[in-house]
């Protein structure tokens, strides 16, 4: 047995273990912290910067190295480095603190960017900046859920922000062209979904240009298709109705 | 004292000939405000002991703390000499570069200026700037050489040295004036030359080129400063003394017995007096005689300082008695020599007298306004005076006359608006009650008291009267009697002063002609107003009441509500202001933004815009700390915009509120104002977001080490191959020349898209004609619907044709054959600098408005799908793959568009539907797979449960498990465009400023250093004729411009002033994804090669800001992480 002195201990606090089960056996490798995710995304290219040692373990914390026969039966090879690479790409990872932190921060930013992109200040029809949204998100103590997509979370954030500040989703500008006989009836059904009707024209067909909340788009689309049996059409004129160009105070 | 003299001031204002409107100009810290203090103390507004320490004109808190003036403010002073009484409207101006706009506002409304120069520092950059400003406004300057005491106390010069030093300074200033003069003469000459070229018939005889430049013919002797002309005064404002030559000439003409006129001429200059002969001789260097100035003046002052500093009691007493002065016991005993000097000198040589006497003598009164200046004020831009309408030309006479009769037209110029706390306005200020008012109130209180007593006595009977009295008393506010209460504020205008807003705006203005009366109706002419237009609209000699006037742009009609006398921090109400005076006007904030011309006649042109020496260049983004306070911020910024002559405020497309200021100090002041006065909220300040564009280029011919590509052997770098694969996912085919083929998720349609870089000229044309493209787009869309109601305007049609022609001209070559005709759309937002070209055979559609009704039937079948393709293209151009910034200069060619399967499906579906109608919804296969398409806007927004949608699914053939087909097409098109881009060499485009820098030749090198450090490129450099100023034109990336102005000023000690204007987009040559591939590159840059890739730096910064994935290691070296120890 080795002599147990402080210098030759490798503390597991500084080791990230990657595990994989194969052939009914558990294999582990010892990696550096905050490096495994980088390897997986292809940013880190040097294997030695990732692996503490090239040997494959059965249990890293106990220091039990995997038997050669087991390796061959599970992986079909006894090249430790190859096996390490396989485990690195396919095994379960412990996400380290910094990795988690950067991931959450990235998602937080991403959410803020999406919110800023989708929303406007209803008074000025101008978007809010990302920094402002980020601050507002911190004010409402929004916590990022790592397993939900950022877009879903962004929609949630918008709902919550509405309580604190003047924010609204940027409206979508649509044009419907509906056959006259069904038009009137359909219009009544569409009414609750439309925010603002900008123009109406009853010449040969009923033509409506209006602003809607983007959340209702699908409903409207389906309603029109259903009611007019494909005769009515719908056209997206503008995905976001925002003020364009710079404005100078004068 | 001030209150008493108000009547006197009003009296003086009427005597136009004895009014002097002057401003004090100088470099920062040369003693403008101190000098102003001394002058103010002579009027008894402040104590003479505090003069120079109080800085009365610096009324803002931050001005006092920082010790610099930040705004120009006016005060009216009274000065009597002999039997003449003068009114002096003194305007103190800031000296810091950042506030040179305030100087401009001050200079405009003055007739003369005092240029103050520090005797030690001499001529400084701002001295040059203010001299130039005074020159451009055509106002006459006088010179004050200040801080002479520093020569004695700090530098310990001998009188002889001091004299030569002063002479030096004077020469420098005169040299400056000289350059200004020559450049003006040369300019005039150049103008004359161009004129004569236009009509060469007039000067046919003059064939010989005249090299004399006309400089010799023009007399310039009156321009220069020289003590013997009496336009120079030597002062020490801090010690309260100052003198002109004249003062001493008077004394010595008696003492020595030489004629005053002779002394006046010789006191300054190399002359000496031969005491024995009582003769003044020219100095002979060999004899080393002291000049008169040294002998008679400086030596006396020196000896006084010497005595006081050495605390030589006897000598001081001797000097004091010989000068016939009386020094108070307190000052005489004071241990600080400064106090003693101040006490002695301010009696011996009072500074206010010296300066004000010079001002009254040498500077013109409003009556003496020169014709030249009037013409200049009235002629905007390149117009000449003669081209103005005759009604306007007639006004010149009114200017010159400056008359106060009722018939004279009232002309007032408002040079700036400044904010005052509403409470500080005279009408809202608490003022002591008059005797009658006090008596009245006492009476009322007594009555009330009696009533109360009566009510108490007969409660039942007095009930109704009690009610009545209570009602009566309530308007009085139920004032209890008390001594303190009598000083309660009385507000004559009980109307609410805009509730919470505490700021009122006062216009800083001057009457040029006529009498400004309170309540007078007057036209407010904005800077862009044109009298010509007005005269066109309104017949000559109209007499209609102005309310019926047709609306003319930039003109308003209002009444002068309140007139004020400006007294530094105080304002005094006035009933009327005669011509030639500086005044404040209240109640104009809704009509005047920053500056305006007020006139009783609409034929008056607005004055030429103020000539700002520094343009705003420091940009920051401002945001409220709490997002809910946005409205307050916007309101505050609007107020700030009005209150500051120089600031610019923008709301950008990104929603940022950008504040553009002249410099860092100015910025700080604006932010303080915003926080404490205008918005009253916490704000945060950050660098503004820097926009980028994404584009593609032709593949490069040479690599990073200038070797030809192709010859080199690729180094097998492991990651290189790995990356290439990861870029393009499966299911997308890419052929060798960049054609990307992609199929929609339901496998019904296939698109083939190729991306091509557009030539630079084309991009430029597209940028320029975005408005045209937009209107064209509207036109085509209305045509496509079969509505031909909107006829194309002839002019637009021509423009479109011209635009098309220009595009065709630049898109030549085999690659672009027919491309212009096949343009389908522009993007982003249907008017941007990117093109979608449709080259598929079976479907024709183009953006050009063709003959109406052409093949519309056929098109309409595809119209919905076509729209989806265009939408996809629009989305793709709006955010590129590199860092989600808009694209620019990219052409997407839709080569093939295969819908055959889709059509098949449609027909079979029709049949299916009939079937399914019979067997009610039975066979409908309900797929529960729901693929979330990240890029599909509409799909993400659906929050309703999936079941609901599947239930409806049977109704529409176009919907399947992947969402509506149109949506799929949008997403697919977008993806196709993205991949088509990614297979080409991508580049970032940076926004560029053009940067004009004016610099003197000696700091040229440093300017270049700063420019190159910030990746700037110098385009040209030329010398301004007649001066030693260089004008440098350079381009600078916007991303590098933060702090640029500050740095360049610091490095050149303020001698170079840049101006930044956005000009164009420029491709950054380096590839943001570049990694070394060849042997040479590998050797040259190493494996990582991330050291100098500017484009990658920018790209990663943007990606990080947006929360996109950045290819960066979280930890660079695994071994170097901090080791955490676990305690056992």
TrEMBL record, chain A:
<dbReference type="GO" id="GO:0042256">
    <property type="term" value="P:cytosolic ribosome assembly"/>
</dbReference>
<protein>
    <recommendedName>
        <fullName>Ribosome maturation protein SBDS</fullName>
    </recommendedName>
</protein>
<feature type="domain" description="Ribosome maturation protein SDO1/SBDS central">
    <location>
        <begin position="109"/>
        <end position="170"/>
    </location>
</feature>
<keyword id="KW-0963">Cytoplasm</keyword>
<dbReference type="Pfam" id="PF01172">
    <property type="entry name" value="SBDS_N"/>
</dbReference>
<comment type="function">
    <text>Required for the assembly of mature ribosomes and ribosome biogenesis. Together with EFL1, triggers the GTP-dependent release of EIF6 from 60S pre-ribosomes in the cytoplasm, thereby activating ribosomes for translation competence by allowing 80S ribosome assembly and facilitating EIF6 recycling to the nucleus, where it is required for 60S rRNA processing and nuclear export. Required for normal levels of protein synthesis. May play a role in cellular stress resistance. May play a role in cellular response to DNA damage. May play a role in cell proliferation.</text>
</comment>
<dbReference type="InterPro" id="IPR036786">
    <property type="entry name" value="Ribosome_mat_SBDS_N_sf"/>
</dbReference>
<feature type="domain" description="Ribosome maturation protein SDO1/SBDS C-terminal">
    <location>
        <begin position="172"/>
        <end position="239"/>
    </location>
</feature>
<keyword id="KW-0539">Nucleus</keyword>
<dbReference type="InterPro" id="IPR018978">
    <property type="entry name" value="SDO1/SBDS_central"/>
</dbReference>
<dbReference type="GO" id="GO:0005730">
    <property type="term" value="C:nucleolus"/>
</dbReference>
<comment type="similarity">
    <text>Belongs to the SDO1/SBDS family.</text>
</comment>
<dbReference type="InterPro" id="IPR019783">
    <property type="entry name" value="SDO1/SBDS_N"/>
</dbReference>
<feature type="domain" description="Ribosome maturation protein SDO1/SBDS N-terminal">
    <location>
        <begin position="14"/>
        <end position="100"/>
    </location>
</feature>
<dbReference type="Pfam" id="PF20268">
    <property type="entry name" value="SBDS_C"/>
</dbReference>
<dbReference type="InterPro" id="IPR037188">
    <property type="entry name" value="Sdo1/SBDS_central_sf"/>
</dbReference>
<dbReference type="InterPro" id="IPR039100">
    <property type="entry name" value="Sdo1/SBDS-like"/>
</dbReference>
<keyword id="KW-0206">Cytoskeleton</keyword>
<dbReference type="Pfam" id="PF09377">
    <property type="entry name" value="SBDS_domain_II"/>
</dbReference>
<keyword id="KW-0007">Acetylation</keyword>
<keyword id="KW-0690">Ribosome biogenesis</keyword>
<dbReference type="InterPro" id="IPR018023">
    <property type="entry name" value="Ribosome_mat_SBDS_CS"/>
</dbReference>
<dbReference type="InterPro" id="IPR046928">
    <property type="entry name" value="SDO1/SBDS_C"/>
</dbReference>
<dbReference type="GO" id="GO:0005819">
    <property type="term" value="C:spindle"/>
</dbReference>
<dbReference type="InterPro" id="IPR002140">
    <property type="entry name" value="Sdo1/SBDS"/>
</dbReference>
<dbReference type="GO" id="GO:0005654">
    <property type="term" value="C:nucleoplasm"/>
</dbReference>
């Amino acid at each position: 047995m080795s002599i147990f002195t402080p210098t030759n201990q490798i503390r597991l606090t500084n080791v990230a273990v990657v595990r994989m089960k194969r052939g009914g056996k558990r294999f582990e490798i010892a990696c550096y912290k905050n490096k495994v995710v980088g390897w997986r995304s292809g940013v880190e290219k040097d294997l030695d910067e990732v692996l503490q040692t090239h040997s494959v373990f059965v249990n890293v914390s106990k220091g039990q190295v995997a038997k050669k026969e087991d390796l061959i039966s599970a992986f079909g090879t006894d090249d430790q480095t190859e096996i390490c690479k396989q485990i690195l790409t396919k095994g379960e990872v412990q996400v380290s603190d910094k990795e988690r932190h950067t991931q959450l921060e990235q998602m937080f930013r991403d959410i803020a960017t999406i919110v800023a992109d989708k929303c406007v200040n209803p008074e000025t029809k101008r978007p809010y900046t990302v920094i402002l949204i980020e601050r507002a998100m911190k004010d409402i103590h929004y916590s990022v859920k790592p397993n939900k997509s950022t877009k879903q979370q962004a929609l949630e954030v918008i709902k919550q922000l509405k309580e604190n500040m003047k924010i609204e989703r940027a409206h979508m500008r649509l044009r419907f062209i509906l056959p006259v006989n069904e038009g009137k009836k359909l219009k009544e059904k569409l009414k609750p979904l439309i925010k603002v009707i900008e123009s109406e024209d009853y010449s040969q067909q009923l033509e409506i240009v209006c602003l809607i909340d983007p959340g209702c788009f699908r409903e409207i689309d389906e309603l029109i298709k259903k009611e007019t049996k494909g005769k009515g059409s719908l056209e997206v004129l503008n995905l976001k109705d925002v003020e364009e160009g710079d404005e100078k105070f004068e | 004292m001030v209150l008493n003299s108000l009547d006197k001031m009003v009296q003086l204002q009427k005597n136009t000939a004895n009014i002097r409107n002057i401003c004090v100009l100088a470099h920062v810290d040369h003693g403008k405000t101190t000098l102003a203090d001394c002058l103010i103390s002579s009027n008894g507004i402040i104590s003479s002991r505090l003069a120079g320490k109080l800085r009365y004109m610096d009324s803002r808190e931050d001005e006092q703390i920082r010790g610099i003036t930040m705004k120009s403010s006016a005060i009216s002073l009274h000065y009597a000499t002999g039997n003449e009484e003068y009114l002096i409207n003194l305007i103190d101006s800031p000296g810091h570069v950042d506030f040179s706009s305030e100087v401009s506002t001050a200079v405009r409304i003055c007739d003369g200026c005092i240029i103050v120069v520090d005797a030690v520092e001499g001529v400084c950059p701002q001295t040059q700037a203010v001299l130039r400003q005074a020159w451009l406004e055509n106002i006459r300057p006088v010179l004050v050489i200040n801080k002479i005491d520093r020569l004695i106390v700090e530098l310990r010069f001998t009188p002889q040295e001091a004299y030569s030093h002063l002479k030096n300074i004077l020469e420098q200033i005169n040299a400056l004036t000289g350059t200004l003069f020559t450049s003006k003469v040369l300019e005039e000459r150049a103008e004359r030359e161009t004129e004569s070229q236009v009509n060469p018939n007039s000067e046919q005889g003059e064939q010989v080129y005249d090299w004399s430049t006309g400089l010799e013919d023009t007399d310039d002797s009156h321009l220069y400063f020289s003590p013997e002309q009496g336009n120079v005064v030597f002062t020490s404002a801090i010690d309260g003394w100052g003198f002109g030559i004249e003062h001493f000439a008077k004394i010595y003409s008696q003492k020595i017995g030489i004629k005053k006129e002779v002394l006046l001429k010789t006191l300054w200059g190399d002359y000496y007096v031969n005491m024995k002969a009582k003769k003044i001789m020219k100095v002979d260097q060999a004899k080393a005689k002291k000049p008169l100035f040294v002998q008679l003046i400086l030596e006396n002052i020196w000896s006084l300082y010497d005595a006081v500093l050495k605390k030589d009691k006897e000598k001081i007493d001797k000097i004091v008695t010989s000068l016939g002065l009386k020094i108070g016991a307190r000052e005489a005993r004071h241990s600080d020599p400064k106090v003693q000097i101040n006490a002695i000198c301010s009696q011996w040589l009072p500074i206010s007298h010296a300066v004000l006497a010079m001002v009254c003598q040498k500077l013109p009164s409003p009556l003496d306004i020169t014709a030249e200046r009037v013409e200049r004020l009235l002629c905007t831009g390149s117009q000449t005076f003669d081209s103005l309408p005759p009604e306007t030309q007639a006004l010149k006479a009114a200017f010159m006359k400056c008359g106060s009769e009722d018939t004279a037209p009232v002309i007032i110029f408002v040079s700036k608006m400044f904010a005052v706390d509403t409470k500080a306005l005279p009408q809202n200020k608490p003022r002591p009650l008059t005797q009658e008012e006090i008596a009245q109130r006492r009476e009322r209180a007594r009555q009330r008291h009696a009533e109360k007593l009566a009510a108490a006595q007969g409660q039942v009977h007095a009930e109704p009267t009690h009610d009545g009295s209570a009602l009566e008393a309530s308007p009085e506010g139920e004032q209890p009697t008390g001594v303190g209460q009598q000083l309660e504020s009385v507000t004559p205008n009980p109307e609410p002063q805009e509730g919470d807003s505490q700021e009122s705006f006062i216009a800083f203005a001057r009457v040029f002609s006529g009498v400004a009366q309170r309540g007078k109706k007057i036209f407010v002419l904005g800077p862009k107003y044109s009298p010509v237009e007005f005269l066109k609209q309104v017949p000559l000699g109209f007499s209609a009441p102005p309310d019926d006037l047709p609306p003319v742009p930039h003109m308003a009609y209002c009444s002068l509500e309140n007139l004020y006398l400006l007294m530094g921090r105080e304002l005094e109400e006035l009933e009327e202001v005669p011509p030639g005076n500086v005044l404040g006007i209240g109640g104009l904030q809704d009509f005047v933004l920053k500056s305006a011309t007020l006139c009783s006649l609409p034929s008056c042109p607005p004055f030429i815009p103020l000539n700002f020496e520094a343009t705003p260049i420091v940009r920051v983004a401002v945001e409220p700390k709490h997002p809910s306070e946005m409205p307050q911020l916007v309101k505050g910024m609007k107020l700030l915009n009005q209150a500051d002559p120089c600031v610019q405020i923008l709301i950008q497309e990104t929603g940022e509120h950008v504040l553009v200021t002249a410099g860092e100090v100015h910025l700080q002041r604006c932010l303080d104002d915003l926080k404490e006065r205008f918005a009253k909220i916490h704000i945060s300040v950050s660098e503004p977001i820097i926009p980028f564009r994404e584009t593609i280029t032709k593949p490069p011919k040479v690599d990073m080490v200038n070797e030809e590509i192709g010859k080199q052997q690729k180094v097998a770098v492991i990651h290189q191959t790995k990356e290439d694969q990861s870029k393009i996912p499966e299911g997308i085919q890419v052929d060798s020349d960049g054609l990307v083929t992609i199929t929609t998720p339901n496998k019904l349609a296939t698109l083939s898209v190729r991306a091509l870089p557009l030539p630079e000229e084309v991009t430029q044309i597209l940028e320029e004609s975005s408005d045209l493209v937009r209107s064209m787009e509207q036109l085509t869309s209305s045509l496509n619907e079969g509505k031909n109601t909107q006829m194309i305007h002839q002019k637009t049609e021509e423009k479109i044709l011209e635009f098309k022609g220009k595009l065709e001209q630049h898109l030549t070559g085999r690659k672009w054959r027919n491309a212009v005709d096949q343009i389908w759309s522009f993007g982003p937002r249907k008017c941007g600098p990117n093109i979608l070209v449709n080259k598929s055979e079976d479907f024709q559609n183009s953006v050009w408005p063709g003959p109406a009704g052409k093949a519309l039937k056929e098109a309409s079948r595809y119209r919905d799908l076509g729209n989806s393709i265009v939408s996809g293209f629009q989305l793709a151009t709006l955010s590129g793959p590199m860092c989600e910034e808009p694209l620019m200069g990219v052409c997407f060619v839709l080569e093939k568009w295969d819908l055959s399967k889709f059509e098949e499906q449609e027909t079979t579906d029709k049949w299916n539907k009939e079937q399914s109608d019979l067997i009610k919804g039975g066979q409908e296969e309900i797929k529960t797979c729901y693929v979330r398409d990240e890029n599909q806007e509409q799909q993400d927004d659906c929050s309703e449960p999936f079941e609901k949608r599947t239930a409806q699914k049977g109704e529409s053939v176009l919907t399947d498990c992947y969402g509506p087909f149109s949506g799929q097409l949008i997403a697919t098109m977008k993806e196709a465009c993205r991949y088509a881009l990614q297979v080409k060499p991508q580049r970032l485009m940076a926004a560029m400023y053009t940067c004009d820098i004016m610099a003197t030749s000696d700091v040229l090198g440093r300017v270049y250093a700063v420019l190159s450090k910030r990746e700037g490129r110098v385009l040209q450099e030329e010398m301004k004729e007649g001066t030693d100023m260089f004008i440098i034109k350079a381009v600078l990336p916007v991303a590098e411009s933060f702090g640029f102005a500050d740095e360049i000023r610091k490095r050149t000690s303020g001698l170079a002033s840049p101006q930044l204007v956005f000009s164009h987009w420029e491709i950054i040559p380096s590839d943001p994804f570049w990694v070394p591939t060849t042997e040479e590159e590998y050797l040259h840059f190493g494996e990582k090669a991330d050291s100098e890739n500017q484009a990658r730096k920018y790209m990663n910064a943007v990606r990080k800001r947006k929360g996109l994935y950045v290819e960066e290691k979280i930890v660079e070296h695994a071994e170097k992480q901090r080791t955490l120890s676990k305690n056992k």
